[in-house]
Structures are given as C-alpha cells and as structure tokens.
Design brief:
By secondary structure, the protein is an alpha/beta fold. It contains 16 helices and eleven strands. It has three domains: about 80 residues, dopa decarboxylase, N-terminal domain, CATH 1.20.1340.10; about 250 residues, Type I PLP-dependent aspartate aminotransferase-like (Major domain) (Aspartate Aminotransferase, domain 2, 3-Layer(aba) Sandwich); about 110 residues, Aspartate Aminotransferase, domain 1 (Alpha-Beta Complex). The strands form two sheets. It has a seven-stranded mixed beta sheet, sandwiched between helices. A four-stranded antiparallel beta sheet has the order 8-9-11-10. The longest helix has about 35 residues.
C-alpha cells in the first residue's frame, strides 16, 4: 500500500468509523449471531493473491458487524463502561502509524517522557498522594489493564517481603495475601501466576455494605503469624465489580502500616470519579497505599487498553521485574537519568499508549471530563429514584457512583427472566451478580452518549419484562 493508497483507504476507514458511531444506537446492543456463524462465512484458506481494500470493508460491514456487541451504544448498561471517544481513537491511530516500540527510553524518548508527564497530570487530576508523582521516589506507568497492575504490585510486594529471595531462589511458600470476598478475580489469578496459589490468599469477610471488614483482616493476619505464615500484601478495592463497594482504606492502611504489609488499591472503574472534587472521599486513606491503579479505558473516554498504575517506590517494583541482558544495555539507561518502563511491567515491549490519554485530556480538558462523569452519576441517581418509587423493585445495595444494583422482589426466577427478556429485545443490555446469595440486576451508567432518554427507555423495558413474566407465571 503506497502512501497515497493509504491516504485514500484511511479516509474510507475514518468515514466508516464516524458513520458507525453515528448509528450505533440503531443496532441491537447484544450480537444476535449463533456460535460458529461468523467463521462459517469466512474462507477456509487464506487468499493467495491480494484482495481489493473495498472487499475488506464490505466484509467488515456484512460479516464482522453482525457479530459485534456494541459497547459504545448508549443502551449498553452491562458490566462496566468501556468508553472510546474521537480524540482517543485518533491518538490510537497516530500511535499505530508511528509504530513505536517503547521498551527503553532510548528506543523513543518521547514515548517515555510523554507517559511520565501525562501520568503526573493524572495524579494531579485525581488529587493522588504526592508519593505517586514522578518527582518523588515513585511514579506512574500505563499498563494494559488493572489485572496486570495487580500482578505487578503483588510481585513487588513478594520481592520486598522476601528481601529478594523469591527472585533468586524461587517462591517463599509461607507468604499469604489478603483481599475482600468481593474483590476482583484478578487478585486470585495474580496469586496463581506468582506461584503462590489460591490457598495462600485469604478472602476477608465483608460488612453489610459489601466492604472489607478491618477487624476480620486484623484477626486473619494475627492467626497467620501465629501459624508461622508470612503476611505480605493486602489488596483493597475502591468500587468492587459486583456492587461498587468501597473498602475502608484508612482503617486497612493503618493495619498495613503497623504490620508492614504492602497495600495495593484497585480502583479500576470508580477511580475516575475522583476527577470531580466532590467524589474524592472514595480515596480517603490512599496516603497509606504502596500502589494504586485505575482504568481510563473504563470511564474516562480512552479506548482499551489503558490502565494507570502508580507506585510509592519505583525501586521496589523494578527490583522485582528488572532483567538486563547485554543487548538492552545503553548509555542513557546506565546514566540513571531516564526511566525504562520495561522494568515496570511484565512484557518487554510496549506501545505508545500515552498518546491517546494525552489526546483525551487535552481535547476534553479537566472540566469536560468532570461534566460527563457528573452527568452519569446524576442519571444513576435518577434511576435509583425510579426503583424506589416502584413497590415491585428494591435496591440490593446502596448506589455506588454510576452503578445501581437492584432486583424485583419476586425472587431469582423473575429477575433472571427480566435479564433474558431485555437481552432478547436487543434494545438493552444489563448484567447480573449475586449478593447475599440472591440474583441481582446491575445497571452501569457510563457510556459516553447515554442520556436520560436512554435510561427512561431502559426502565420502561425492565418494568415491561417484569409484567410479562408475572403474567406468564400466573398462566
């Protein structure tokens, strides 16, 4: 493809994306295809000769698009927001065009220095503790996801607890970590990858608000020490996946400080809310944290993947992850004056992710981001008022920012049927969880273009599905 051909076809692709975003609300939110249906339309063998670019775009429209679940739809209320935006898409395009491999400062200085600077911006935007700024002994880095950030935090904590022995001699078996019963599965997966396993992870009981109980945490730590185990990490959550619960960071942090444990805080979706000063209480106690992460690719209009991961001490992280073969040695790295982000993550290679985050922050401005976040939270508050006004429904947990957990009072069967009916309608996509062993409906308000009209339609469909199901049960 020549530069001129690229220019022509690039315009076609951008036009297609712009048209798609303009009509995304017209598609069924959840894909209607059956298993195997997409592959059945594809040739069994790769083409031997080149094909016209127009054929590729045609097949995107006719084969790929029907198999897409439309995460950018304003009628998408499932899981969590996974927003994109024009500035982010263009930043991603520019990153792909530059084709930068940013493993070392020397392999593209702008890739590293822009990332360091933008992460300092983010720390300021969220009013994070000063020890997460690059001017301190810590700093920030962009990971692919909160799962990778949690794994990096765990490896750093393991290395610190064993004084380097886990890297030199292997896993130190008596190590134990602690997290909430409501914590994300990535903590358990990180334990497995680190060679520690499920049996060395303690899932701490939660309170009536589904937040980790500090008293139970202290008891478990004491019990492990008495048994000869070595506590080394507590993973707290700001905004659990099921209900948006916020663990009490101040109380947990005091325990970690007293017991000399690494405190990692996962704020994957909820962290973005701290851009708004009135919501910064979610981070109360964050000054105790040794590491922290949140995902701009969830609720800050940056397309996947983009997780901001901050550490109190960068040397604690790099000691766990740095390996320096001869072919990576260079004058800049040996000077000690630059950051090599390869030492802050699992893979060696890394993309120029900072561009899309930079584009979003500059294009929206802090005030623009705050405006959208506040609108989403106000919509969630409105939905709560509708649930409260309908005697057939109830809240299953307190509203947490933009997440509402609710259920029909008729029991699990009717709630499951509400899910099934709304999903089959194509006009709405919800997901579920279980709280107090009851099936609960989750409605997450966070897609960029979601307005009150979309929420009103969603509530009407939910009520209609409930009435239909009750009618069927009576028959």
């Amino acid at each position: 493809m020549t530069p001129e051909e690229f220019r022509r076809h690039g315009h076609q692709v951008v036009d297609w994306i712009a048209d798609y975003l303009g009509r995304v609300d017209q598609f069924p939110v959840l894909s209607r295809v059956q298993p195997g249906e997409i592959r059945a339309q594809l040739p069994k063998q790769p083409p031997q000769q080149s094909e016209p670019f127009g054929d590729l775009l045609r097949d995107v429209e006719e084969i790929v698009l029907p198999g897409i679940t439309h995460w950018q739809s304003p009628n998408f209320f499932a899981f969590f927001p996974c927003n994109s935006s024009g500035p982010s898409i263009l930043g991603e395009l520019l990153s792909a065009g530059l084709g930068v491999q940013g493993m070392l400062w020397a392999t593209s200085p702008a890739c590293t220095e822009l990332e360091t600077h933008v992460l300092d911006w983010v720390a300021q935007m969220l009013a994070l503790p000063d020890h997460f700024q690059s001017k301190s002994q810590g700093g920030g880095v962009i990971q692919d996801s909160a799962s990778s950030a949690s794994l990096c935090a765990l490896l750093a904590a393991r290395e610190q607890a064993t004084q380097g022995e886990s890297n030199r001699r292997g896993v130190y078996c008596p190590l134990v970590a602690y997290t909430s019963q409501q914590a994300h599965s990535s903590i358990e997966k990180a334990m497995r990858i680190a060679g520690l396993g499920d049996r060395q992870l303690r899932r701490i009981e939660t309170d009536t608000q589904f937040a980790l109980r500090p008293d139970r945490l202290a008891e478990e730590i004491a019990r492990d020490r008495a048994a000869g185990n070595v506590p080394f990490l507590v993973a707290a959550t700001v905004g659990t996946t099921s209900s948006g619960a916020i663990d009490p960071l101040s109380s947990i942090g005091e325990i970690c400080q007293r017991e000399r444990l690494w405190l990692h805080v996962d704020a994957a979706m909820a962290g973005t809310a701290a851009v708004c000063p009135e919501h910064r209480l979610i981070h109360q106690g964050l000054e105790f944290a040794d590491s922290y992460c949140f995902n701009p690719h969830k609720w800050m209009f940056v397309n996947f993947d983009c997780d901001c991961f901050f550490v109190r001490r960068r040397d604690a992280l790099t000691r766990a992850l740095s390996i320096l073969p001869e072919y990576l040695r260079n004058t800049a790295s040996e000077s000690g004056e630059v950051i090599d982000y390869r030492d802050w993550q699992i893979p060696l290679g890394r993309r120029f992710r900072a561009l899309k985050l930079w584009f979003v922050i500059r294009s929206f401005g802090v005030e623009g981001i705050q405006c959208v976040i506040r609108r989403h939270i106000q919509l969630a508050e409105q939905f709560v008022s509708w649930v409260g006004a309908n005697p057939d429904f109830e809240l299953a947990a307190p509203r947490s920012l933009n997440l509402v957990c609710f259920r029909h009072r008729g029991g699990d069967t009717i709630n499951q049927q509400i899910l099934d009916r709304t999903e089959s309608s194509g006009a709405l996509y919800l997901t579920h969880t279980r709280l107090h062993d009851e099936l609960v409906l989750r409605l997450s308000v966070g897609q960029f273009d979601t307005q009150q009209e979309h929420l009103e339609q969603a509530w009407a469909l939910i009520q209609k599905a409930a009435v239909q199901e009750l009618g069927d049960l009576k028959v």
